[in-house]
Amino acid sequence: MSNAITGGCLCGNIRYSVSAPVEKIIACHCTHCQKASGAGASHNAVIPASAVTFTAGKPKLFADTAQSGNTLKRYFCADCGSPIYSQRANLPEMMVLKVGTLDAPGEMELVMNIWTNSARPWMHIDPATECHPENRPVKT
Q1: Which one of 6, 18, 120, 140 has the largest count of C-beta atoms within 10 Å of its C-beta?
Q2: What is the CATH class of 5-131?
Q3: What secondary structure does DSSP assign to the chain, as a single string?
Q4: pTM, whole model, 2 decimals?
Q5: Could you read off the pLDDT of 130-140 as tens digits, one per residue?
Q6: Confidence at residue 140, expressed as pLDDT on a 0 to 100 scale
């Protein structure tokens, strides 16, 4: 497939391909994402876990009690430390892909900021995006 979406870690030991569109980015400003990413926020795309195929390597797991109190499984490269994706323990069918690991950015748009009450004062948050002081509301 010539239009494959591919990505991987910094050292190249973990590689993956994505069969679903990766278009909408959610920036998480919680303190745990700041620590895990080493940055002011983690930039993520929520996609079906079934859409991702690992073609090289296997990410290591760190189970985190997130700022929300939920268990968040964080997957990263054990060699270079690159965060690859996370999953809520109670929602394994979905994956929160770290978009910085994609080989090519494609046509993506930052559409939401969550946990803005924890945002670093120097992080710019576009007021035109949907913003939530904590986690995004659960859709009913």
Answers
A1: 18
A2: mainly beta
A3: -TT-EEEE-SSSS-EEEE-S---EEEEE--HHHHHHHTSS-EEEEEEEGGGEEEEE---EEEEEE-TTSSEEEEEE-TTT--EEEEEETT-TTEEEEEGGGBSS--S-EEEEEE-GGG--TTS---TTSEE-SSSPPPP-
A4: 0.88
A5: 999 998 877 65
A6: 52
